[in-house]
Amino acid sequence: MAADAHAPTPSEYIVHHLTHFNGTGEAQKSIVDFSVINWDTVFFSVLLAVVTAFLLARAASKVTSGVPGRFVGAIESLVEFVHEQARSIVKGDISYIAPLALTSFVWIVLMNAMDFLPLDLLPKLWEGYYVATGRDPHHAYLRVVPTADLNGTLSLSIVVLCASIYYGIKIKHPGGFIHELFSAPFGSGILLAPFNFALQLIEYAAKTVSLGMRLFGNMFAGELVFMLIALLGATATWWGFGLHFLTGLGWAIFHILIVVLQGFIFMMLTLVYIGQAHEGH
Known about the structure:
The chain is mostly helical. The chain has helices at residues 10-17, 39-61, 70-89, 97-113, 121-132, 150-183, 193-232, 238-277.
């Protein structure tokens, strides 16, 4: 936090940590604001995408005909698991769909895992940079969990939406895809076509919003709990430090399940939505 004459209040501490770095020097006025870019979300998303590509490429380069090492064996097991899930859900060619699901799982898990970093570690380093460059550290906002930003999770879900539409057109051809938009689920007919089309739009929108909101909601809540736990350590009392350690340890262990589970759910729903694009009504 800023080097001020008085320590920040709990509300000031939380508000500061919930504010994105968007280059404006001011707190973001709303969760979703298309007039600004949350550069911290962009930076950490791209950084972890590069890490994901490096890990998967590294494992692929080490694959041999002999007994694999632990790292390669773990990646191979993960690849086989995702491939089986894709084959059981998607009725068609999965040569591109399975890698998409695998990449989304690993990438999202890594983005979620940023929650395990000490809460004030990177923000404090960011504040130090502001001080060193003569800027006001009050505006040194930084959030390091990309999936705790609704802009980021909705972007991921929009990619899934585009993929499902792409495969719908590819499998059913443009004419069949458009025909389905106006004939399902109530059946063909001029009078039914507007209702079919409206329901199809609602279905696509609901899938996209729910997919992004689910991931965002779980990670935002987890991040907020870590902030509340961090405030226990600021009480400067023995019981405060004790509760800070015990609750932080307990929540971190439980959060491991959330981090992996949310990546798995996103991956499975991606396969389900793309699989539905392969099926006709």
